[in-house]
Amino acid sequence: MTLKLSRRRFNTLVGTTIGATAMSGILPGRAVAATTEITVLNWKGYGTDGTFAVKEFAARTGVAVKHDYFNSEPEMLTKLRTNPGAYDVVLINSARTQQAQADGLIDPIDVAAVPNAKDLVPNLKGHPNLLVGGKLYGLAWVWGMNSLAVRHGKVAGADSFAIFLDPKYAGRVALLDDSATAIGIGALLTGQDINAPKDLRAVAEKLKAMKTNVKLLWSSEDEWNKAFAADAFDISVYWSGAAVRSKKEHNLPVDFIVPKEGAIGWLDGLSIPSSSTKKEAALKFLDYMIDPTFYVVWAKQAGAPASANEKAMAQLPADDLSRQVHKSEYLANSQLMSAMPDKRRQEFADTWEEVKAFYAK
């Protein structure tokens, strides 16, 4: 098997590929010369750095946007800790929001200064992952799922993560090199809570039983697309928004399936670092990021996770892939990644390293 042991969640392809004129004529108002600059910390190519978005936001507000990137969630936290004052907006998986708050890295968000927040889905807007002491530390932005992706026309009847164990697919499976996702799959297959499995040994053994089938451990969307296009595997765990892009932008024959166990759901939020000196401009950017006019262009042209803004999702055509993949009932039937203590997070990491070492033998 081929092992890629670096860890990464999202996606290097999309951000700069959308034309700078994508939103031309959509929004009223005269262009404003940029007088302020903010820095956003995010995964590369994950919506906020889209050419059209950066240009339109600057024209609308006079605020220029530059970016810095991370390749893992621990790296994101490290960058916030070691570069005070460098960032004004940060993308945080809501499962990590409380950890960032406990470390003093992010400030509460003044929702009154974010007009579009009124249209956020209520149970996402006030999700427990985003709250500490009744205060909101992350603005719900997008949600999605880590679930099954299979090669259309070659894999039939895939309705469970148990397909990763089917001997018929020896050497044809790819897994995401991420401990939370891997442990989550093992937990679902052993009937446990993805965030707090009581029997990690059972999880590890279930994952180890996939050894013969696992060909690749992938860590980026670009890697996944290239390997799938090269016929390296037929079955994988994959991100919902990425599956849309793989079909729409790369014409790959991929079907995205939510299995009977449910998917591993996640909610990404946007936060403002405590050390930011440009919080007013940052709040304007948060408001723009949940504006339907931004989301609809992102989703229709590139493919995106589901917006936490109800009006944004409603504006997508009924046959749009982003809307089809992200049905609300899928989220309801999935377990959402949630905050966990450092000790448990380390146990997840250690278990996954043990499984990967077993694969490598």
Structure described in brief:
The chain contains 14 helices and 14 strands.
Description of the molecule:
The protein has 361 residues and is of the alpha/beta class. The chain folds into two domains: 36-143 and 267-326, D-Maltodextrin-Binding Protein, domain 2, CATH 3.40.190.10; 144-264 and 338-360, D-Maltodextrin-Binding Protein, domain 2 (3-Layer(aba) Sandwich). 34% of the residues lie in helices and 19% in strands. Strands 1, 2, 3, 4, 7, 8, 9, 10, 11, 12, 13 and 14 form a twelve-stranded mixed beta sheet that branches. Helix 5 packs across helix 6 and helix 5 (179-189) packs across helix 14 (342-360).
Top keywords for this entry?
2 domains, alpha/beta, D-Maltodextrin-Binding Protein, domain 2, 361 residues, 19% strand
What topology emerges from the helices and strands here?
Layout: E1 36-42, H1 51-61, E2 63-69, H2 73-82, E3 89-93, H3 97-102, E4 106-107, H4 122-125, E5 131-132, E6 135-136, E7 139-151, E8 173-176, H5 179-189, H6 200-208, E9 214-218, H7 221-229, E10 235-239, H8 240-248, E11 254-257, E12 264-273, H9 279-289, H10 292-301, E13 306-307, H11 310-314, H12 321-325, H13 328-332, E14 335-336, H14 342-360
Parallel strand pairs: 1-2, 1-3, 8-9, 8-10, 12-14
Antiparallel strand pairs: 3-12, 4-12, 5-6, 7-10, 7-11, 7-12, 7-13
